[in-house]
Amino acid sequence: MRFKSVSSIHADPYRAGAEIGDALREVVPEVVLLFASISYELDFTDLFDGIRDSIGSTETLIFGGTGDGIYETSRVANYGVCALGIHSGGKLRWSASFENGVSTDSYAAARSCALKTLSQVGGQAAFAFVLADGAKADGSGIVAGVNSVLRIPYFGGLTGDDRKFTRSRVLLNGRELEDAVAILMASGELAHSINAAGGWTPIGTSGNVEESEGNSIRRIGGMSAQAFMKEQLGKPLGETDLGIIPLAMYKSEGTEYFSLRTPSHLDSDAGAITMFGSIDQGTSVRVCTATREEVIRSVSDALEGLNRGKPGGAAAVVISCAGRKWMLEDRANEEVEQVLATLGKRIPLVGFPSFGEISPFRKPDGTYSDTFFHNVTFVICAIGG
Amino acid sequence: MKYPLLSLVENSPPGFTFKPCLSKHDVRSGPFALYSDSLQTAEHHLKEAGGYIAGIIVTDSDEFVWRASGFHLFHLGVPPALRSHLSALLPSFLELLEMIQSGGDENRNISLELARTVEDRRRLANDFARSRKSLLEEISERKKMEEEQQVLSSLVENSNNLIGIAAFDGTLVYMNRAGKKLLGLEDVGDIRTLNMGEMTFPKFQSKLKDIFSVLLKTGSWKGEAKYRNYKTGASIPVGTHAFVIRDPKTDQAVAFATISRDISERKSMEREMIKNQKLESIGLLAGGIAHDFNNLLTGIAGYVSLAQSRVPPEGDVGRHLAEAEKTTFRARDLTHQLLTFSRGGTPVKKTVAVCDLIRDSARLALTGSNVRCDIVPSPELWHVDVDEGQISQVMNNLLINACQAMPDGGVIQISSRNVTLGIKERLPLAEGRYVRISVKDQGIGIPGEHLQKIFDPYFTTKQKGNGLGLATSYAIIKKHDGNITVESKLGVGATFHIFLPASRNRNASQAGPEVKTEKGEGRILVMDDVEAIRDVATNMLESLGYTTADARDGMEALELYGEAMKTGKPFDAVIMDLTVPGGMGGQETVKKLLRIDPNAKVIVSSGYSNDDIMADYMAHGFSGVVPKPYTLNQLGEAVGRLLAGFP
Lengths: 385, 647
What we know:
heterodimer, A: alpha+beta, 2 domains, 8 helices, 27 strands, 23% helix, B: alpha/beta, Beta-Lactamase, 6-stranded mixed β-sheet, 5-stranded antiparallel β-sheet, 23 strands, rod-shaped
């Protein structure tokens, strides 16, 4: 297999695409994983055109989405586009499809998309990558929908914008999709490993979610959701906390394992909080905190679990929550730097700061947990090798 | 070639490639040069290629032209002579253009970053303002809560009730000032070293466990309990309300609080009320017995009197009958005391000499005791208007108390003198003349804290005392418009001072003009519910020469009287009993009788000699009064006076 990553910060999307295409042409990519900042929003057509014109093929499957910036081997930037060209030499059968309506029913859309994509690869998927519109989807619903179909570990994320939480795009073969979920699957043999880590620690007292609807959490522990978080944090939630301060969501009573959910909107009238993923009524939650050091250190934890001390991989896809980037500020680069330091400085690496992450956990015995929806989590997929 | 040189016309300069149609790739991949026959043609083609282009449009021109044609688009007009040099000339321009374009990209990115930074700052500023506002609100709220807490703390700390908090193992957590005082904990440094169990009696411990379980179950408990004073060990009955304190976050019971009130006084009052009710019942019983006994005495006294009238007074029989009469009247005095105790009573006053009163009372009270009585003579004492019986009762009470204060004997000194009180004297008495009687003993004295209470009903320090003697004495003196005070020194003795208003009369009451117990004539009607009294009264009257008739009650009396009037044999006088159980008594009967005969002469007779009617008989329609029991002389005198026209 051949992999190559490239990035461009050209303002002209066509030129950026052309630069991407030019660089990837040499690997003759079957699939291009493409991640771009939302600043290219008006001209994704030009971006696609640039890539295709430069690659010189319309057969290349282009799959990606927008995020709050790009991660690539050579740069971590707030604005630009990055891509990973993958060539399997025909050993993999690739397929990608999408489904609209994640804002209405994320579960149904994801399930339908997964069924469609799976059928296109002959019902045998070895690899799956899921992206959904972060401004509209319920991440929990997306994962639940895909879990209802796929039995393999898979990863992915929610696309995003530049911290405005208003719009994002899933990019698929020249189309920019809104309110959609898209899945890329491959059948065949594709060695890859996935892991996730957060670095967050629950603090304070837990509260039960007493009232919630979809992504909107209204009451926790006898008070409004915002009041609960204010009580735990000692200060009211603010704009700067959106996407950053998570609630640990305990799957069942008495368990230590939790997923994280961060707020995306605050309803100041009702004291409700809209999260990036839904939390069912009756779920026990606790506010979490972390230092920048703990957040960065969690990358090592994720890498450690990739192949239990022998990470390996010929390429890497990093989906790290945009909230982590906002929290790390000038140290945001250090996540990718750690990956490169572990996997190799020249390893083709792409990724984006997302509005939600999808990943299982790699267990000590090398098997995988179920796939969960996360927030403020670092997800890495090492491919090939 | 790094920078494409394109041409829209076939006849292009050397190095240029003819492109009848331009693709995005041609013009968007980087800076380019485009040869066209005209600027407008070139601009038209480039328009379709979209934005972000950087290029140089080359046209033929008579003279060298260089000007901007768009954002990163320039127009180069070259004279035909320079056409062949364009391919060599243009790359450097295009390289420059690329640098400009890259710079533009950079600037764009910088602008975006700047906008983002401004947005981040705005977000931070907004959040800071919100947090600051929230913090200030919280501080204000906290201050307000602290103030409220201080007020509440002050209320709790200064409450007169015990307010305390203890853990469920009994360890004290908090006790307010009143609680510490009540439980004798004022000198304890840290009350948290103590346990509630130390403030209760062993007998109460098991009840305490029951109370805790009720508390945990229901959250509160109300009832009476007994604390133990930590310092003195004294028992303190309290009314208590205990309730559980819960952690507001977990709702777990963490401690309990109690608000308790010392109910010693209430308990004491309850006991006194029960005692009072008992005494009232006893009083009623005593009054009833005394009344009946008095009626019996009336019969006895009457027959003794009748017997006396038939034998010589100097003989043995006469003397024995005289003693029997005295004893009867002593018994009467006793019944009067009982009646006074049970009913109280308006004093029936007459002017008496104080020294006589003192002498008689002392003799009566101290007979048989080991206490000597010294009566200090007081010449020229003013007389007083008193109810002899009641004042005797007062003197009796004081003298008996003085005796009891000297169980091993001693001397009681009774002195009296005239005093004139003005506004300077701090006594609750009107200005005027008084006689002060002082009774001084050499007993153990009265403790200072009791001096204020000794005249209170039921206050007694004696094991067997009922606490009524001094209270009754006080009430009697007050009814005489006088006052009674006490002074005492422990181990020395006590002195009681009685102040009685001096009489305007210079002479003691004398009996009215003496009417000898002569035989009389006339018709007398006797009304009494007791047959023995009717018998003895009619016998006594008949022995005096009167004719008599008797009636059981007022109704019968009215019938007989009316009939007598009709038959022309009217009664000259009527003697009526005041109290007729189950029938018409004297008070009602006299009113009806006077309607029949406004000139009717009616004598009221009763064992309640200090009854209001007896004391003021004329105001109630009666013409005379004869208290029971009466002698032959007393009855004859009363009837004789009435028929003679004397009150």
